[in-house]
Amino acid sequence: MGPGGMGGGPGGMGGRLSDRNRPKATLKDVSMKRILLLFRSYWGQLAVIIGLALLAAVIGLIPPLVMKEIIDKAIPQGNMKLLAVMAVLMIVLPLLSGVLGVWQNHLNTKVTQGVIRDLGQSLFHNLQRQSMAFFTDARSGEIVQRITGDVQSVQSVVTSLVVSSITQIVIVLTTVGILFALDWKLAIIALLILPLFMMPVKKVSKMRKALRLETQKVRSDISSQLSESFGISGALLTRIFGRETQQEREFTAMNQKVMDLELRLNLVGRWFGMATSTLGPLGTAIIYLYGGYSVINGSMSLGAIVAFAAYLGRLYMPVGTLLNLQVEVATALGVFQRIFEYQDMVPDVMDREDARPLGPVAGRVAYKQVSFAYKPGQYALRDITFEAQPGEMVALVGPSGAGKSTLIGMIARLYDPTSGVVEVDGVDVRDVKLASLRAQIAYVTQESFLFHATIADNLRFAREDATREEMEEACRQAYIHDYIVSLPEGYDTMVGERGHRLSGGERQRIAIARAILKRPRILILDEATSHLDSESESYVQSALEELMRGRTTLVIAHRLSTVLAADHILVIEAGSVAERGTHSELLAQEGLYARLYSTQFKKAAEVEGG
Ligand SMILES: Nc1ncnc2c1ncn2[C@@H]1O[C@H](COP(=O)(O)OP(=O)(O)OP(=O)(O)O)[C@@H](O)[C@H]1O
Does this entry carry the keyword Transmembrane (predicted)? Predict the structure, then answer.
C-alpha cells in the first residue's frame, strides 16, 4: 500500500531527501477497505460474532409473533394454555438474548482492543524504522498524539464497526424478510421512506470529517506545545525569559479551540441523529394509517397490524443506527488518514533487500565524492573525499554550520549521501545490514543524553548482556567509576530525564563509558564545546583518550590536544574540504586553519591549561 522503491537504489541521486518529500497517504487512500483490513487477523472471532448476532436477531423476531398469537388466537379462542405458553416465551426469549448479548459484547471488546493494539504496534514499529531526517522534521508531541490520542480516538468507531454494523445489518435483513412475509404491500410502504433519510448522510459526513481532522490537528499542536514547554530545556527557557503567561495564553487559545470544534462536531452530529430518530414515528404513522384502513375494510387482521408495527421498530432503529455509524466512520476517516500516514511512511534509510551482515571490520573508513542535500538543490556537503586507516584519527574543524555534523553522521547512515559513497573496509555502507554496521560504531554526541533509568540501565543501552564487571571496567576507563560508587545507590542510582542530577562532565563520562562498553571499531565523536572546569575537563579528556585508543575515530574537534593528536585534519568550509593536512602543515599554509587556530584552538588551549 505504501509507496515503495525508495532508499534502496544504488547511487540514489536525489531520491532520499527529507520526510517532507515523500508521498503520503491522502484521504483517497483511506478507503473503507483499508479500515476493514485492520480486522484481518480476527476473521474467526468475527464469524462467531456474526453467528451470535444472527441468533439474537432470530430470537428478537419472535416476540411480535407471540403478540400476534395472543391477540388473534389465544384471546378470541379463550385458549388459556396457549396464553400461558406465550407468556412464558415472553420471559425466556429476552433472557436468552441477554445471555447471548453478554457473550457477543465480550468478543466485540476483544476484537476492538486487538485492532487498537495492532494499530499502535504497527505505528511504533514504523516510527522506529525512520531515519533521523524524520525526527528532525517532526515535533515529538505530534508523534505522541498520533500514536496514542489518534489511535484511541478511533476506538469507538472500531467498536461500532464490529458491534453495530454486524448486529444491525442482520436485524434489518431478517426484519425486512419477515415484513414481506407478513404483508408485501405494507413492507414496500415501510421501505419507501428510507431514502429520505439517506440524503443528508453525505453532507453531514463531509462536514464532520473536516471538523474531526481539524480537531486532531489542534490536539497535536497542544501535545507538541506541552512536551516542549514542560520538557526540561523548554521549562528552563520559559522561566528565564519569563514567558509563563504568554505560554499559558497560547495554551488557553488552543484548548478553547478544541472545545469549540468539539461543540460544533457534536451539534452537526446531534441534528443528524435527531433527524434519523424521526424515522420511526413517521414510518409507524404511515403504516397505522394504511394498515388501520386495511383492518377496517377487513383485508388484514388486528394482530397482524400490531405485529407489523412492532417490527417497524426493528427496522427503523437499526437503519438509523447504521446511518449514524456511516457518519461516524466518515468522521473518523480524517483520523485514520493521520494514522495511515505514519503507517505508510517509507524510511529514507533502510536495509536493501540484498543487504548482507557486515562482519567484524578493521575500521578503514573512506568517503568518496560524497555530496548531500537536506533539501533538493541545497547542498550541505559537496564532493567530500578522504580516507582514515584503521586506528587513525581524523579531526574535522571548521566554522559553525559548515557541515561537520552532517558529514560524521553519514558513516552510521543517519543520512545517506545524495551522491557518492561512504565505505567501511571497502564496502559501501548501504550494502550491509544497518544493525550490523551500527553495532561496530559508537557515537558520542556533544549533549550526552541519558534515559530516565538507573546508571546501570543506561550503560546497558550499549550492550544488553554487559555484566556488572564489564560495566565497572568501562566506567573505570571513563574515569567515572569512583564517582558512581560514591553515590548512595551506586550503579542503581536513577538519573533523571537527560541525566539532570549529574553535572555535564559526569554525564559525558557516563556516555563515554557507554561507548567503551559497546567496543566499537569506529568512533564518532562530537567534542563538547561547553567549557567544563579544568578538573572535569581533564577527566573527560583522559576518558576520551581511552575510548579512542586503537579505534578509527572521526572527531569534530574543539580542543587543541585533539587536533594535535589527529593523523589528518580536514578543514570544512561551506560543505567542502577547504584544507587538509596535519596541524603543522596547515599552520604553514596560513589559511582558514591558521585563522581558526588563533581564534579558537589557542583560546581553548588556554582554558584547558587552566
Ligand atoms: N535537518 C536538517 N534539515 C535541513 N538543513 C539542515 C538540517 N540539519 C542541518 N542543516 C543545515 O546543514 C548545514 C550543515 O549543518 P551541520 O550541522 O552539519 O553543520 P556543523 O558544521 O556541524 O555546525 P556546528 O559546528 O555549528 O554544529 C547547515 O547550514 C544547517 O543549517
Answer: yes
Superfamily in which the 450-519 domain is placed by CATH: P-loop containing nucleotide triphosphate hydrolases (3.40.50.300)
Over residues 252-264, the pLDDT tens digits come to 999 999 999 999 9
Map 293-308 to HEC letters: HHHHCCCCCHHHHHHH
Cell reading at 282: 413517521
Q: Please identify which residue in the block is written with the cell numbers 377487513.
A: 298
- How many CA atoms lie less than 13 Å away from 539 in the CB half-sphere? 24
Q: What does the block give as the cell for 117?
A: 493494539
Check: pTM over 0.90? Answer yes or no: no
**Grid cell for residue 487:** 553515590
Instruction: Look up the ipTM and state it.
Output: 0.94
Protein residue whose Cα sits closest to atom 25 of ligand 1:
400
**What torsion, rounded to 10 degrees, do the Cα atoms 106, 112, 114, 120 define?**
-150
HSE (side-chain half, CA atoms, 13 Å) at 578: 21
Confidence of residue 4 (pLDDT cuts 50, 70, 90): very low
**Burial profile 102-116: b = 16 or more Cβ within 10 angstroms, e = fewer:** eebeebbeebbebbb
Distance, in Å, from the CA atom of 268 to the CA atom of 363, rounded to the nearest integer, reads 64
Pocket-forming residues, ligand 1, beta carbon under 6 Å: 136, 374, 380, 398, 400-406
Residue nearest to atom 18 of ligand 1 (CA): 403
Domain ranges of the chain: 26-344, 450-519
Amino acid code (one letter) for 542: S
Following DSSP, what letter does each residue of 432-495 receive, concatenated?
B-HHHHHTTEEEE-SS----SEEHHHHHHTT-TT--HHHHHHHHHHTT-HHHHHHSTTGGG-EE
Q: Could you tell me the distance, in angstroms and rounded to a whole number, from the CA of residue 398 to the centre of ligand 1?
A: 12
Among protein residues, the one whose CA lies closest to atom 17 of ligand 1: 405
Q: Are 262 and 269 in contact (CB under 8 A)?
A: no
Q: Choose the residue to mutate in 20, 378, 404, 445 for probing ligand 1, maximizing ligand atoms within 8 Å of C-beta.
A: 404
